[in-house]
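My main concern about presentation is that the manuscript never shows what a single data entry looks like. For the editor and my fellow referees, an illustration may be useful. For illustration, here is how one protein appears when written out as sequence plus structure tokens:

***
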Amino acid sequence: MNVSLGKQLETLVAEQVKTGLYQNNSEVVRDALRHLFLQEDSDDTELLARCLREAKNSPRRAYTPGEFRKLAAGAIASRRRRSSIS
């Protein structure tokens, strides 16, 4: 699939890749789309935002590419499972 983003969005995507959190442009777009779909469930969106803030401010070692997203996805899945049981 090819998608045209326009100069402004292309610049924003490139900046995200430069942070080292993402390995390439596709990862940024996939993550952005996941975030968009998570907005339907505000609890998950807030959980993800809190996890991102905690990781950014953490004195621990830096995460390897993709590691943090796996941890955040696991936390969201765990929370959903607990919510469905309650």
